[in-house]
Amino acid sequence: MYSCRICGNSKRNMFYEAKEMLLGLGDAFKYAECNECGCLWLVDVPEDFTKYYPSNYYSFVSFEGSTSLLRQRLLAGFIWLNAIYYNNKFKLITVPTFALWPNSFLPVRPTTGIFDKKILDVGCGNGKMLYRLSLAGFRKLFGCDPYIEKDIQYSLPNGNICIRKCEIFKLDETYDIIMLNHSLEHMQDQEKVLRKLHSLLAEYGELIIRIPIVSGNAWTKYRETWFALDAPRHIFLHSLRSLSLLASKTGFQVLRVIHDSTEGTIRSKLYMKGLTLSQQNEFLKRSFNGGMLHWMHKVYSVYLNWVAKSDHIRVYLTKKDVN
Predict the structure, then answer these.
(1) If 175 and its partner were Cys, which of 115, 120, 147, 293 is the partner (CB 3.0–4.6 Å)?
(2) Which residues are CB-neighbours of 71 under 8 A, at least 6 positions away?
């Protein structure tokens, strides 16, 4: 059980004990770090994750009408920027904006006929990313997530968004673009998952994976209090090497890697002080010092992305020998 689940190495691996900190439960879990490929994986996986994904878990909470008027207008502005980006216009505006606010950038890359591509978002939660894609002009949008309460359907001017309560192994259609927006790290059998994604992806399709990465500075500095470790929900945390190995083993090739951190290391610093996510949000939103600190780290994240040392990446893959 202590052999690396990506490359098989069992020599000189390191071990860490991390506590559940996001909800403040404090349960302890053992992680192993591969000495060869650098992958970090959860050794003692819980049999039941129910209490670690409560109904108010951030990706399940409805986003429609839940934000302030200012946030709604900002979102509308970013959606407009995405729409003109996909129509290949006003690059002098869109490129700098997405460099400063990576999360405002929808991960799908612009190509000919992009709005008619069939897109699947795996582990999509409430479907917020699909909702934004629809507002930007996309028409064929689907999602799946085994942890949502029930199937979800949104009826929008560009068409319906259909989200199924299921794992990817229940799907059998093919898709032009498949996204995993911070969901791969929650999945146990990584090789099995990638092989299934390979079968679901169209011949000239694109797989987009957004994950936290141990190859940046944050894991080295914060270790057990690294915010993106997120024990026990994050079962695998890849290095660039381990992700490349996994992709190659399952028939994929990496086209491009983009660093897209948005908050620097502020969350990890606050974890070191013992603050849960809700307590952090309260501090960052309600106090002047917290607000200033938050913005300083947002600027710091731009630097980390620029020097390719951030702790989050966006990876574009395709089937081998296709492109």
Answers:
(1) 120
(2) none
Model pLDDT for residues 60-85, shown as the tens digit of each residue = 766 554 444 445 555 556 666 666 66
- Domains (range + CATH), the chain: 14-319 (3.40.50.150)
pLDDT of residue 322: 53
Total-model pTM: 0.88
Q: What is the largest CA-CA distance in the chain?
A: 56
Beta-bridged to residue 146, according to DSSP, are none
Q: Per-residue DSSP letters for 79-113?
A: HHHHHHHHTT--HHHHHHHHHH-GGGS-SSPP-TT
Task: Give the H or E element holding residue 38.
Answer: none
Residue 220 has which token pair?
């080295």
Q: Are strands 252-259 and 312-319 parallel, antiparallel or unpaired?
A: antiparallel
pLDDT in tens, 193-214: 999 999 999 999 999 999 999 9
DSSP 191: H
Calculate the CA 179 to chain-centre distance.
9
First to last CA, the chain: 37
Dist CA 51 CA 112 (whole Å): 44
Nearest to 4 by CA among 51, 52, 36: 36
Supply the pLDDT for residue 86.
Answer: 66
Span 1-13, pLDDT tens digits:
689 999 999 999 9
- How buried is 150 (Cβ within 10 angstroms: 0-12 exposed, 13-18 middle, 19+ buried)? exposed
Under DSSP, the state recorded for 213 is B
pLDDT given for residue 98 in this prediction: 64
